[in-house]
Design goal:
This protein has about 250 residues and is α/β, with parallel strands linked by helices. The chain has a single domain, classed as Rossmann fold, CATH 3.40.50. Helix 1 crosses helix 2 and helix 2 runs parallel beside helix 3. Bound molecules: 6-phosphogluconic acid. 6-phosphogluconic acid binds next to helix 2 and strand 4.
């Protein structure tokens, strides 16, 4: 699917203010979707800024009018490690957010772990099957991080995963960022989102963010360039991450 929307940048002085704004916007989006009768599917991500966001959402949740029984959670990518590993994006989100809110396990769709299936390929195939079985068609909001190398989810520069077509998910091996084995949504999967929200904080992300948003550049070099939401693509940045933008 071809990218459909031009990205928009929202930047804030500090990571704390940024996370507060994203938390409000996400709670609003979930409430609005529920008010029109939808059960929104939210794509979660791992990483440091996501961890801050999860804590902030958990803190604000009691005051929000979200019906947590009517939200479905997925991950854009996952590390292929045992289910109890603290390396798992899902572990972190559960600890900081989902367990705190008491979300029904039936609405939390984790990528199968290395103690549950034999290979990352099997895990990716099983996750795609779960998506189909759950009636997933798109994310209401898909949260993504970006690495200093420009990767997003587990789509790394120059990696074979960038070229996969005709599948929603894929196994990744030899990831330059440890752990080496992972499962990721493909570009085709990631683009099934009304809103794609990238979160980036800190000086270390400034170059990758500038490359992702530059007029020219390649997806092979900066994979984050290749993901756009159907309705919007928002880059939520703190001042350090936005430092090299024109
Ligand atoms: C992972 C993540 C990855 C992450 C970015 C940003 O498995 O590492 O899924 O895509 O979101 O690398 O991570 P940081 O915010 O920690 O830099």
């Amino acid at each position: 699917m071809t990218p459909v929307t031009a990205p928009r940048v929202v930047s804030h002085e500090s990571a704390d203010v940024l996370v507060g704004d994203v938390a409000s916007a996400l709670l609003d989006r979930i409430e609005t979707a529920q008010a029109r009768g939808d059960v929104p599917h939210v794509g979660l991500t791992g990483g440091s800024i996501a961890e801050m966001l999860h804590r902030e959402l958990a803190r604000r949740a009691p005051d929000a009018s979200v019906d947590w029984a009517r939200v479905v959670f997925w991950w854009g990518d996952e590390r292929f490690v045992p289910s109890d590993s603290s390396d798992r994006n899902a572990q972190q989100a559960r600890r900081e957010l989902l367990d705190v809110l008491g979300v029904d396990p039936a609405n939390i769709h984790e990528v199968p772990a290395s103690d549950e299936v034999a290979t990352a390929e099997e895990s990716a195939a099983s996750y795609a099957e779960t998506l189909r079985a759950a009636g997933w068609t798109s994310f209401e909001v898909l949260l993504l991080g970006i690495g200093p190398d420009g990767h997003t989810a587990s789509l790394f520069p120059g990696h074979p995963g960038l070229d996969i077509r005709g599948a929603l998910t894929a196994a990744v091996h030899d990831s330059p960022k440890p752990p080496p084995d992972r499962v990721t949504f493909t570009f085709e999967g990631l683009q099934q989102a009304r809103s794609v929200w990238f979160l980036a904080s800190g000086e270390g992300k400034a170059d990758a963010v500038a490359r992702a948003l530059a007029e020219d550049g390649s997806v092979a070099e900066t994979p984050a360039r290749g993901v756009r939401g159907q309705d919007e693509t928002v880059w939520w940045l703190d001042a350090d991450a936005a430092r090299l933008l024109p």
